[in-house]
Amino acid sequence: MTVGVVIILSLVVFVAALVQGTSGIGFALIVSPVATLLAPELVPTIVLLLMLPLNAFVAMREWRSIDWRGGAWISAARIVFTLVGLLLVAMLSTTGLTVLVALVTIGAALVSLFASPFAPTPAAFLAAGAVTGISETATGVGGPPMGLVYQHSRPAVLRSTVAICFFIGEVVSLVALTVTGSAPDGWLGDSLVLLPALVLGTVGSTLVVRRFPLLDLRMAVIVFSIVSGAVLLVQVVV
After folding, report:
1. pTM listed for this prediction
2. Where are the chain's structural domains?
Protein backbone atom coordinates (compact mmCIF):
# COMPACT_ATOMS: atom_id res chain seq x y z
CA MET A 1 0.00 0.00 0.00
CA THR A 2 1.17 3.53 -0.74
CA VAL A 3 1.49 6.13 2.02
CA GLY A 4 -1.64 7.89 0.78
CA VAL A 5 -3.69 4.69 0.86
CA VAL A 6 -2.44 3.89 4.38
CA ILE A 7 -3.44 7.35 5.63
CA ILE A 8 -6.92 7.17 4.11
CA LEU A 9 -7.55 3.61 5.31
CA SER A 10 -6.26 4.48 8.78
CA LEU A 11 -8.83 7.28 9.06
CA VAL A 12 -11.58 4.99 7.80
CA VAL A 13 -10.55 2.18 10.19
CA PHE A 14 -10.52 4.64 13.11
CA VAL A 15 -14.05 5.83 12.36
CA ALA A 16 -15.28 2.28 11.70
CA ALA A 17 -13.87 0.95 14.99
CA LEU A 18 -15.44 3.88 16.84
CA VAL A 19 -18.82 3.19 15.22
CA GLN A 20 -18.83 -0.58 15.76
CA GLY A 21 -17.53 -0.34 19.31
CA THR A 22 -20.40 2.05 20.05
CA SER A 23 -23.31 0.64 18.04
CA GLY A 24 -22.40 -3.05 17.61
CA ILE A 25 -22.13 -3.11 13.80
CA GLY A 26 -20.66 -0.97 11.04
CA PHE A 27 -16.95 -1.78 10.81
CA ALA A 28 -17.04 -3.91 7.67
CA LEU A 29 -19.84 -1.84 6.09
CA ILE A 30 -17.60 1.22 6.36
CA VAL A 31 -14.17 -0.33 5.66
CA SER A 32 -14.92 -2.93 2.95
CA PRO A 33 -16.18 -0.54 0.22
CA VAL A 34 -13.27 1.88 0.76
CA ALA A 35 -10.69 -0.91 0.93
CA THR A 36 -12.15 -2.47 -2.21
CA LEU A 37 -11.80 0.89 -3.96
CA LEU A 38 -8.20 1.54 -2.84
CA ALA A 39 -6.70 -1.93 -2.31
CA PRO A 40 -9.09 -4.60 -3.66
CA GLU A 41 -6.52 -7.38 -3.32
CA LEU A 42 -6.73 -7.08 0.48
CA VAL A 43 -10.49 -7.71 0.75
CA PRO A 44 -11.82 -9.57 2.70
CA THR A 45 -8.71 -10.70 4.64
CA ILE A 46 -7.68 -7.27 5.93
CA VAL A 47 -11.21 -6.58 7.21
CA LEU A 48 -11.48 -9.96 8.94
CA LEU A 49 -8.11 -9.64 10.68
CA LEU A 50 -8.67 -6.09 11.91
CA MET A 51 -12.03 -7.04 13.37
CA LEU A 52 -10.52 -9.77 15.56
CA PRO A 53 -9.02 -7.52 18.29
CA LEU A 54 -11.97 -5.11 18.04
CA ASN A 55 -14.56 -7.81 18.63
CA ALA A 56 -12.49 -9.55 21.30
CA PHE A 57 -12.29 -6.27 23.21
CA VAL A 58 -16.01 -5.47 22.90
CA ALA A 59 -16.99 -9.02 23.93
CA MET A 60 -14.78 -8.84 27.04
CA ARG A 61 -15.95 -5.31 27.86
CA GLU A 62 -19.59 -6.39 28.02
CA TRP A 63 -19.37 -10.16 28.49
CA ARG A 64 -22.13 -10.20 31.11
CA SER A 65 -24.62 -9.15 28.41
CA ILE A 66 -23.78 -11.87 25.85
CA ASP A 67 -26.75 -13.95 24.65
CA TRP A 68 -24.97 -17.30 24.65
CA ARG A 69 -27.97 -19.25 23.35
CA GLY A 70 -28.55 -17.06 20.32
CA GLY A 71 -24.82 -16.76 19.73
CA ALA A 72 -24.45 -20.54 19.63
CA TRP A 73 -27.13 -20.88 16.91
CA ILE A 74 -25.57 -18.09 14.86
CA SER A 75 -22.02 -19.43 15.18
CA ALA A 76 -23.03 -22.97 14.19
CA ALA A 77 -24.65 -21.79 10.94
CA ARG A 78 -21.83 -19.27 10.38
CA ILE A 79 -19.19 -22.01 10.42
CA VAL A 80 -21.13 -24.35 8.14
CA PHE A 81 -21.75 -21.69 5.47
CA THR A 82 -18.16 -20.43 5.42
CA LEU A 83 -17.52 -22.93 2.62
CA VAL A 84 -19.98 -21.16 0.32
CA GLY A 85 -18.16 -17.88 0.91
CA LEU A 86 -14.85 -19.56 0.05
CA LEU A 87 -16.28 -20.82 -3.23
CA LEU A 88 -17.34 -17.28 -4.16
CA VAL A 89 -13.84 -15.94 -3.45
CA ALA A 90 -12.30 -18.67 -5.64
CA MET A 91 -14.78 -18.20 -8.51
CA LEU A 92 -14.95 -14.41 -8.80
CA SER A 93 -12.46 -12.07 -10.49
CA THR A 94 -11.43 -8.79 -8.87
CA THR A 95 -14.19 -7.01 -10.77
CA GLY A 96 -16.71 -9.65 -9.77
CA LEU A 97 -15.69 -9.39 -6.13
CA THR A 98 -15.98 -5.60 -6.29
CA VAL A 99 -19.52 -5.88 -7.63
CA LEU A 100 -20.37 -8.45 -4.94
CA VAL A 101 -19.04 -6.19 -2.17
CA ALA A 102 -21.07 -3.29 -3.55
CA LEU A 103 -24.30 -5.27 -3.86
CA VAL A 104 -23.93 -6.95 -0.45
CA THR A 105 -23.19 -3.59 1.17
CA ILE A 106 -26.16 -1.81 -0.42
CA GLY A 107 -28.49 -4.78 0.05
CA ALA A 108 -27.58 -5.22 3.71
CA ALA A 109 -28.04 -1.51 4.36
CA LEU A 110 -31.48 -1.46 2.69
CA VAL A 111 -32.59 -4.56 4.60
CA SER A 112 -31.45 -2.90 7.84
CA LEU A 113 -33.43 0.21 6.91
CA PHE A 114 -36.73 -1.40 5.91
CA ALA A 115 -36.89 -4.65 7.91
CA SER A 116 -39.95 -5.01 10.12
CA PRO A 117 -39.54 -5.68 13.86
CA PHE A 118 -39.55 -9.34 14.88
CA ALA A 119 -38.73 -11.49 17.89
CA PRO A 120 -35.57 -13.61 17.54
CA THR A 121 -36.16 -17.36 17.13
CA PRO A 122 -33.73 -20.25 16.51
CA ALA A 123 -34.68 -20.09 12.81
CA ALA A 124 -33.84 -16.37 12.69
CA PHE A 125 -30.51 -17.00 14.42
CA LEU A 126 -29.64 -19.79 11.96
CA ALA A 127 -30.59 -17.62 8.97
CA ALA A 128 -28.46 -14.74 10.25
CA GLY A 129 -25.51 -17.07 10.79
CA ALA A 130 -25.85 -18.61 7.33
CA VAL A 131 -26.01 -15.27 5.52
CA THR A 132 -23.12 -13.94 7.59
CA GLY A 133 -20.98 -17.00 6.89
CA ILE A 134 -21.36 -16.48 3.15
CA SER A 135 -21.12 -12.70 2.91
CA GLU A 136 -18.41 -12.09 5.51
CA THR A 137 -16.08 -14.78 4.17
CA ALA A 138 -16.50 -13.51 0.60
CA THR A 139 -16.65 -9.73 1.18
CA GLY A 140 -15.85 -8.99 4.83
CA VAL A 141 -19.39 -7.63 5.36
CA GLY A 142 -21.54 -9.63 7.77
CA GLY A 143 -22.92 -7.40 10.49
CA PRO A 144 -26.41 -6.42 9.27
CA PRO A 145 -28.02 -9.90 9.55
CA MET A 146 -26.95 -10.16 13.19
CA GLY A 147 -27.80 -6.54 13.83
CA LEU A 148 -31.30 -7.20 12.51
CA VAL A 149 -31.77 -10.19 14.81
CA TYR A 150 -30.80 -8.15 17.87
CA GLN A 151 -32.15 -4.76 16.74
CA HIS A 152 -34.72 -4.63 19.56
CA SER A 153 -32.41 -5.94 22.29
CA ARG A 154 -30.52 -3.78 24.74
CA PRO A 155 -27.49 -2.10 23.07
CA ALA A 156 -25.09 -4.01 25.33
CA VAL A 157 -26.67 -7.34 24.31
CA LEU A 158 -26.37 -6.48 20.61
CA ARG A 159 -22.76 -5.26 20.89
CA SER A 160 -21.46 -8.14 23.00
CA THR A 161 -23.28 -10.99 21.24
CA VAL A 162 -22.47 -9.78 17.75
CA ALA A 163 -18.85 -9.29 18.85
CA ILE A 164 -18.40 -12.85 20.15
CA CYS A 165 -20.12 -14.31 17.07
CA PHE A 166 -17.95 -12.21 14.79
CA PHE A 167 -14.79 -13.24 16.62
CA ILE A 168 -15.52 -16.97 16.28
CA GLY A 169 -16.57 -16.64 12.65
CA GLU A 170 -13.61 -14.47 11.66
CA VAL A 171 -11.13 -16.98 13.04
CA VAL A 172 -12.82 -19.72 10.99
CA SER A 173 -12.89 -17.58 7.82
CA LEU A 174 -9.26 -16.48 8.11
CA VAL A 175 -8.05 -20.03 8.68
CA ALA A 176 -10.12 -21.26 5.73
CA LEU A 177 -8.89 -18.47 3.42
CA THR A 178 -5.27 -19.10 4.42
CA VAL A 179 -5.41 -22.88 4.12
CA THR A 180 -7.05 -22.75 0.69
CA GLY A 181 -4.58 -20.15 -0.60
CA SER A 182 -7.25 -17.50 -1.10
CA ALA A 183 -5.49 -14.96 1.14
CA PRO A 184 -3.28 -12.51 -0.84
CA ASP A 185 0.47 -12.13 -0.25
CA GLY A 186 1.41 -9.46 2.29
CA TRP A 187 -2.07 -9.14 3.77
CA LEU A 188 -0.84 -9.66 7.33
CA GLY A 189 1.74 -6.87 7.19
CA ASP A 190 -0.68 -4.47 5.51
CA SER A 191 -3.27 -5.21 8.17
CA LEU A 192 -0.84 -4.57 11.04
CA VAL A 193 -0.01 -1.13 9.61
CA LEU A 194 -3.62 -0.16 10.30
CA LEU A 195 -3.66 -1.59 13.83
CA PRO A 196 -2.88 1.74 15.63
CA ALA A 197 -5.94 3.35 14.04
CA LEU A 198 -8.05 0.38 15.11
CA VAL A 199 -6.82 0.63 18.71
CA LEU A 200 -7.55 4.36 18.88
CA GLY A 201 -11.06 3.87 17.49
CA THR A 202 -11.78 0.99 19.87
CA VAL A 203 -10.61 2.94 22.92
CA GLY A 204 -12.62 5.94 21.74
CA SER A 205 -15.74 3.78 21.47
CA THR A 206 -15.44 2.83 25.14
CA LEU A 207 -15.39 6.49 26.13
CA VAL A 208 -18.46 7.19 23.95
CA VAL A 209 -20.39 4.18 25.30
CA ARG A 210 -19.78 5.26 28.90
CA ARG A 211 -20.92 8.79 28.21
CA PHE A 212 -23.76 8.03 25.78
CA PRO A 213 -24.87 4.45 26.56
CA LEU A 214 -27.93 4.60 24.26
CA LEU A 215 -26.27 6.36 21.30
CA ASP A 216 -27.64 4.96 18.01
CA LEU A 217 -25.45 5.37 14.89
CA ARG A 218 -27.55 2.99 12.81
CA MET A 219 -28.80 5.56 10.27
CA ALA A 220 -25.34 7.03 9.71
CA VAL A 221 -23.94 3.57 8.98
CA ILE A 222 -26.80 2.79 6.58
CA VAL A 223 -26.39 6.03 4.60
CA PHE A 224 -22.61 5.67 4.37
CA SER A 225 -22.95 2.04 3.27
CA ILE A 226 -25.36 2.85 0.45
CA VAL A 227 -23.17 5.70 -0.82
CA SER A 228 -19.99 3.59 -0.63
CA GLY A 229 -21.60 0.67 -2.45
CA ALA A 230 -22.91 3.00 -5.16
CA VAL A 231 -19.41 4.47 -5.67
CA LEU A 232 -18.02 0.97 -6.19
CA LEU A 233 -20.68 0.15 -8.78
CA VAL A 234 -20.02 3.41 -10.64
CA GLN A 235 -16.30 2.62 -10.65
CA VAL A 236 -16.91 -0.80 -12.23
CA VAL A 237 -19.28 0.59 -14.87
CA VAL A 238 -17.00 3.50 -15.79
Report:
1. 0.81
2. 3-237
